[in-house]
Write a structure and sequence with these properties.
Blueprint: H1 8-31, H2 38-41, H3 53-69, E1 76-81, E2 87-89, E3 92-93, E4 95-101, E5 106-111, E6 114-115, E7 119-120, E8 124-125, E9 135-137, E10 148-164, E11 170-182, E12 195-198, E13 200-209, E14 221-229, E15 234-235, E16 239-241, H4 243-253, E17 259-263, H5 266-277, H6 290-296, E18 300-302, H7 304-317
Protein name: L,D-transpeptidase
């Protein structure tokens, strides 16, 4: 057997080449998961039922980061595009909340409420209509949506009262709330009690005598109301879904947290507002749903350091009336 000896320079060159090849293979293996697969790419677009590119890219990057950190093992993740219309008209709701399960190649686009904001008359108007959101923010008591990175957390189920069905049966209404924990500008999500739940509430509350009920208070009274579904409306800043969708989503994340990315963040809002102000060509502006941008003119982000003092002063100038007892129900 003859041994071949290479000059030192050749050996070094071959060694470097081997290192480069190994690093390239490693880089490819790391980069591969971040490439959007073809089946999911087919759902990318700006039409209803599709997810816009920047929203998917950021939602996916957040999910992959949390998976790599070991914070998430859930096979699915969520995204929301709050620039899209919530109400398409004629009873049709816009689909702007996304459930992505890459392992099973499943993609769903569903409706979701947005933060209604508030109109502090004579002071500041940061309210939103039913269709499109113009105002966003992270201030306490602002009832605004704050974009950014979130993780789903614990589920809390609470009794809200009874309501009567068409069959004249009294049903206990219990609503489950999924707490969100946010990062960055959304870091005060828990403080703001921001999360997700079914878009249902009891209105017109009254009290009825029912001492045998496990929900009765010390006077033997239980609350009653009319069950209202507001899936096509606004929320107090939380993410709200139709009752059917809420049931499925809550089951997915109960004791199995995952990520939620909500678009837009304040940087996106500032960029779009600046583009609108300078009349930049539409092809050069950052992403915003075209129909809503035409309707709102330009979006605005209200930072907590600016808005919270305004809200606090308004509360001081307009103290809430003392709470009144819930009236007794009339009739049977």
């Amino acid at each position: 057997m003859r041994l071949r000896f290479f000059p030192l320079g050749v050996v070094v060159t071959l060694s470097l080449l081997a290192i480069v090849i190994a690093l390239t293979a490693t880089a490819r293996s790391i980069a591969a998961p971040s490439a959007i697969p073809a089946w999911l790419q087919a759902h990318v677009g700006d039409s209803d039922g599709q997810i816009s590119t920047v929203v998917l890219e950021r939602a996916r990057a957040l999910y992959l980061k949390k998976v790599a950190q070991g914070a998430v093992t859930n096979p699915c993740y969520f995204a929301m595009d709050a620039t899209r219309p919530g109400d398409m008209g004629n009873g049709v709701l816009g689909r702007r909340y996304y459930v992505v399960c890459e392992a099973s190649q499943s993609f769903r686009a569903i409706s979701s409420g947005h933060g209604g904001g508030r109109n502090l008359k004579g002071t500041a108007d940061f309210s939103n209509g039913r269709r499109c959101s113009k105002n966003f923010g992270n201030a306490m008591d602002s009832e605004l949506t704050a974009g950014g990175a979130y993780m789903t957390s614990e589920a809390k189920t609470s009794f809200k009262g009874f309501y009567r069905t068409g069959a004249k049966q009294d049903v206990a209404f219990q609503r489950t709330f999924i707490q969100f924990d946010g990062e960055g500008e959304a870091a005060n999500a828990r403080q703001r009690v921001i999360g997700g739940h079914a878009a249902q509430v009891l209105r017109g509350m009254c009290m009825r005598k029912n001492p045998n009920s496990s929900y009765a208070d010390h006077d033997g009274l239980v609350p009653f109301g009319q069950l209202v579904d507001y899936a096509g409306g606004r929320s107090n800043g939380c993410t709200s879904w139709s009752p059917t969708d809420a049931q499925q989503i809550i089951a997915m994340v109960k004791d199995n947290p995952t990520t939620l990315y909500i678009y837009p963040e304040s940087r996106d809002i500032a960029a779009v507002a600046q583009a609108a102000k300078s009349h930049s060509p539409s092809g050069q502006t950052p992403y915003w749903n075209a129909s809503c941008l035409k309707e709102i003119g330009a979006p605005k982000f209200w930072p907590r350091k600016t808005l919270e003092p305004i809200i606090a002063q308004y509360k001081q100038d307009h103290p809430a009336p003392p709470p009144q007892p819930v009236p007794m129900c009339k009739g049977p």
